[in-house]
C-alpha cells in the first residue's frame, strides 16, 4: 500500500482518542478508590488525589468494625434483585409469548394495551398514590420490587418480536398436534428456545433492581429496609448518618470523634459499587450484544 | 337488494348461524384459554401500575384533602393549572428541562457519532471491544454512584478540581455546590460522560449493518477513508440518526430525575439551574405535600409528551416506515 505511513498515523490518532476516552471513563472510579485508602493527613494537605502521600485503611476498618448495617442494606438489595428479576422475567415472558402467536384472540387490543403505556403516563403523583393509598406498600420490600419496575412494556415488545422472528409457528403446531398442552409447549419448548433473550432482559432487570434508590427513597422510611444505594445517598449528604444507628449517644460521640470523615464516605462508595465493577468484566460482552440486539430489533 | 331476495331463507338461518358463530367463538376462546390466562399477571400489573394512575390524573382537577380521599375531594376545575402557570416556577422548570434536553441531544449525538465512526476504523477487533466495554461502564452504574464521583471532583475543600485549579493556575477555590451558574455545564458533561458510550454502541451497530461491498467497491475506485466515511457511512446511517434524534425530541419535557436530584445533591441554592419538571413534581409532592399542583405539573408534562410522540412518529413514518413506533 502506498500510503501506509499516513494510515498508521491515522490509526495511532484513533487509538490515542480512545485511550483518552477510556481514561476519562475510568478515572473517577480510580479517584474514589484512592481517596478511600488515603490517610486523613494526606487529604488535609493535598486534597483528593490519585496519588496520596500516605496510604491508610482506617476508613475500611471503621466501616467493617460494625458491618451489620451495610450487610443488612446489601441483604435488602440482593433479595429485591433476585426476586424482582425472576418474577419480572416470568411475567414478561408470560405476556410476550401469547402476544407473538398470530391466532390469539384479542391480540391486537392486548398489544395496544401494552404499547399505550409507553405513550402516556398519569405522572408520578397518581402513581405514587396508587402504591401508598390504594395498595399500602409503604415500608415493605414489595415497594422496591413492584412499583414501576416489575414489567416494562418495552421489554415485552422486545421479547414478543424475538418470539415472532425466531420461533417458527410450525414448532408450536407440531407440538400441539402431538398432544402437548399450551402450558407444556410454553415450559418445554418456548422457554428453552428463548434463553438468549431472557438472559438479556434478565441482565437489564438485574441492573435496574441493583441500582434502584428511587423506589427506596419514595416508599421506605424505615432505615432497616434501606437498600445499599439509598444508604449511600443518605451518607453522601450527611456522613454522620453512618453513626446514627449507634446504640447510645455517648458511644456515637466517641465514634464521631474517631471517624475518618473524608475517607469513610468514599470507602462506603467503594463497598457500594465494587460488586458491580468486579462482575462487569464477566457480563460486559453479553451486555453489549444485548444493547445492540435491542437497538436493532426493538 | 340481495338481502330482500333471500329474506325468508336468511331469516330462518340467522339465529342458527349466529349460534354457530357464537359456538365457534367460544371454541376458539376455549382453545386459547391457557394462552389468555398467561397474559393475566402482566395485564393486571399494567392495569395497577399504569392504567389506574392514568385515571388518577383527575387529581390535577381536584382540591385534594386527605380526609376526603380521591373520590370525595372537591373539584377544583383548572385552579391547579392556574396556580402552576402563574408561579414563576412553571417557566423556570420548562426552560430548564427543554434547554438541558437540547444540549444533551446535540452534544451526545456529535460525540457518539464520532466515536462510532472511529471504532469502525479500528482493525484489531479485540481492542475495539475493550474500548466499548470501558466506556459503557458509566452507563451501568447508578446515579448515586455518579453523585459520589462528581462530589470527589467538586467538593469545595478537597475536591480534585479545586486542587488542580488552585495548584496549577492559582485560581481561588470555587464553592461549586452553591454557585448555580456552573451547573448547566457540569450536568451536560456528566450526562455525556454517562451516556455517550451507550449511544456510540447503538450507532456502531447501525454502521456494522452496512453492506461491506460498498466499501470494497469504493476502495477499488480509490476512495480514501475520509471519503468512504462521508459518502457511504454517514448517508447510510442517517435514517437511524434522524429516528434516534426525533425520538429524543419527543421526550423533551422529560428529565432524568437522578441526574437533576442526586448529582447536585438536592441543594436548594442550585435549584434555579437544576430544577426540572420531574424534580419540581417530586418536591411539590413530598416536601410541600401540594398534591394538586404537583399532579397538574405531571399532567402538563404527560400531555405535551403524548402530543410530541404522536407528531414525531408521523414524521418518522414519512422518512422511514420501519423505524416508526406505530
UniProtKB/TrEMBL annotation, chain A:
Please name the SUPFAM superfamilies in this protein's record: MetI-like (SSF161098)
Q: Which residues form the ABC transmembrane type-1 domain?
A: 74-283
Q: Does the keyword Membrane apply?
A: yes
Where, per UniProt, does this protein localize? Cell membrane
Q: A single GO CC term, please?
A: plasma membrane
Membrane-traversing stretches: 12-37, 73-98, 110-129, 141-158, 185-205, 264-283
Topology relative to the lipid bilayer, per the entry, is:
Multi-pass membrane protein
Keywords (A to Z) from UniProt: Cell membrane, Membrane, Transmembrane, Transmembrane helix, Transport
Looking up InterPro entries in the UniProt record yields: MetI-like, MetI-like_sf
Q: Which CDD domains match?
A: TM_PBP2
Q: Where is the signal peptide?
A: none
Biological process per Gene Ontology, one example term = transmembrane transport
Family, according to the entry, reads as follows: Belongs to the binding-protein-dependent transport system permease family.
User: What is the name of the protein in this document?
Assistant: Putative aldouronate transport system permease protein
Write down the species.
Paenibacillus methanolicus
The record lists the lineage as: Bacteria, Bacillati, Bacillota, Bacilli, Bacillales
TrEMBL record, chain B:
Q: Where is the ABC transmembrane type-1 domain?
A: 94-312
Identify the CDD domains for this entry: TM_PBP2
Which SUPFAM superfamilies does the entry mention?
MetI-like (SSF161098)
Alphabetically ordered keywords of this record: Cell membrane, Membrane, Transmembrane, Transmembrane helix, Transport
Gene Ontology cellular component list: plasma membrane
**Cellular location of this protein?**
Cell membrane
Q: What is its main location?
A: membrane
* Topology in membrane: Multi-pass membrane protein
Q: Which InterPro entries match?
A: ABC_transporter_permease (IPR051393), MetI-like (IPR000515), MetI-like_sf (IPR035906)
From the UniProt record, give one GO term of the biological process aspect: transmembrane transport
Question: Which chain regions cross the lipid bilayer?
Answer: 34-52, 98-119, 131-154, 182-211, 232-253, 298-316
Q: Which residues form a coiled coil?
A: none
Query: What superkingdom does the record give?
Result: Bacteria
| Tagged with keyword Mitochondrion | no
**Family in the record:** Belongs to the binding-protein-dependent transport system permease family.
Name this protein carries in UniProt: Putative aldouronate transport system permease protein
Say which species the protein is native to. Answer: Paenibacillus methanolicus
Amino acid at each position: 500500500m502506498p500510503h501506509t505511513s499516513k494510515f498508521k498515523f491515522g490509526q495511532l490518532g484513533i487509538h490515542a482518542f480512545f485511550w483518552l476516552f477510556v481514561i476519562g471513563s475510568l478515572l473517577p472510579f480510580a479517584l474514589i478508590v484512592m481517596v478511600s485508602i488515603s490517610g486523613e493527613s494526606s487529604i488535609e494537605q493535598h486534597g483528593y488525589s490519585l496519588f496520596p502521600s500516605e496510604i491508610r485503611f482506617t476508613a475500611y476498618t471503621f466501616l467493617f468494625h460494625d458491618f451489620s448495617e451495610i450487610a443488612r442494606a446489601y441483604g435488602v438489595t440482593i433479595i429485591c434483585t433476585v426476586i424482582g428479576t425472576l418474577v419480572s422475567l416470568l411475567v414478561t415472558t408470560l405476556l410476550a409469548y401469547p402476544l407473538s402467536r398470530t391466532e390469539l384472540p384479542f391480540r391486537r387490543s392486548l398489544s395496544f394495551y401494552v404499547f399505550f403505556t409507553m405513550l402516556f403516563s398519569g405522572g408520578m403523583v397518581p402513581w405514587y398514590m396508587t402504591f401508598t393509598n390504594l395498595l399500602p406498600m409503604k415500608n415493605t420490600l414489595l415497594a422496591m420490587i413492584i412499583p414501576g419496575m416489575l414489567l416494562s412494556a418495552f421489554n415485552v415488545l422486545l421479547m414478543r418480536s424475538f418470539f415472532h422472528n425466531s420461533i417458527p409457528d410450525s414448532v408450536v403446531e407440531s407440538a400441539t398436534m402431538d398432544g402437548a398442552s399450551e402450558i407444556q409447549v410454553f415450559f418445554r419448548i418456548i422457554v428453552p428456545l428463548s434463553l438468549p433473550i431472557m438472559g438479556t432482559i434478565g441482565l437489564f432487570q438485574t441492573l435496574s433492581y441493583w441500582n434502584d434508590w428511587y423506589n427506596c427513597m419514595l416508599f421506605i422510611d424505615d432505615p432497616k429496609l434501606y437498600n445499599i444505594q439509598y444508604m449511600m445517598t443518605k451518607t453522601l449528604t450527611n456522613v454522620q448518618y453512618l453513626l446514627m444507628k449507634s446504640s447510645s449517644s455517648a458511644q456515637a460521640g466517641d465514634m464521631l470523634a474517631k471517624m475518618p470523615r473524608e475517607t469513610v464516605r468514599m470507602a462506603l462508595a467503594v463497598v457500594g459499587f465494587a460488586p458491580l465493577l468486579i462482575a462487569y468484566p464477566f457480563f460486559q460482552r453479553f451486555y453489549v450484544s444485548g444493547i445492540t440486539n435491542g437497538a436493532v430489533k426493538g | 337488494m340481495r338481502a330482500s331476495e333471500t329474506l325468508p331463507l336468511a331469516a330462518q338461518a340467522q339465529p342458527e348461524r349466529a349460534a354457530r358463530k357464537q359456538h365457534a367463538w367460544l371454541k376458539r376462546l376455549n382453545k386459547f384459554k391457557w394462552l389468555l390466562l398467561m397474559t393475566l399477571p402482566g395485564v393486571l400489573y399494567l392495569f395497577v401500575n399504569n392504567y389506574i394512575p392514568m385515571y388518577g390524573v383527575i387529581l390535577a382537577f381536584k382540591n385534594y384533602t386527605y380526609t376526603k380521599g380521591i373520590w370525595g375531594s372537591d373539584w377544583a376545575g383548572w385552579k391547579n393549572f392556574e396556580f402552576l402557570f402563574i408561579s414563576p416556577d412553571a417557566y423556570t422548570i420548562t426552560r430548564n428541562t427543554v434547554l438541558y434536553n437540547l444540549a444533551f441531544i446535540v452534544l451526545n449525538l456529535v460525540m457518539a457519532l464520532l466515536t462510532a465512526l472511529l471504532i469502525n476504523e479500528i482493525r484489531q477487533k479485540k481492542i475495539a471491544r475493550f474500548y466499548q466495554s470501558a466506556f459503557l461502564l458509566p452507563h451501568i452504574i447508578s446515579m448515586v454512584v455518579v453523585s459520589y464521583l462528581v462530589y470527589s471532583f467538586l467538593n469545595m475543600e478537597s475536591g480534585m478540581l479545586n486542587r488542580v485549579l488552585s495548584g496549577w493556575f492559582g485560581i481561588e477555590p470555587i464553592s461549586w455546590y452553591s454557585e448555580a451558574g456552573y451547573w448547566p455545564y457540569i450536568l451536560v458533561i456528566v450526562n455525556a460522560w454517562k451516556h455517550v458510550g451507550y449511544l456510540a454502541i447503538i450507532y456502531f451497530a447501525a454502521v456494522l449493518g452496512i453492506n461491506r461491498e460498498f466499501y470494497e467497491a469504493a476502495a477499488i475506485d480509490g476512495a480514501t477513508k475520509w471519503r468512504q466515511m462521508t459518502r457511504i457511512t454517514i448517508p447510510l446511517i442517517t435514517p437511524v440518526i434522524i429516528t434516534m434524534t426525533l425520538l429524543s425530541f419527543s421526550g423533551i419535557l422529560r428529565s432524568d430525575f437522578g441526574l437533576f436530584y442526586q448529582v447536585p445533591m438536592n441543594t436548594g441554592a442550585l435549584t434555579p439551574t437544576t430544577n426540572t419538571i420531574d424534580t419540581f413534581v417530586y418536591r411539590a409532592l413530598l416536601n410541600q405535600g401540594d398534591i394538586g399542583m404537583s399532579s397538574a405539573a405531571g399532567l402538563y408534562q404527560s400531555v405535551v409528551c403524548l402530543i410530541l410522540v404522536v407528531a414525531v412518529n408521523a414524521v418518522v413514518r414519512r422518512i422511514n416506515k420501519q423505524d416508526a413506533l406505530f
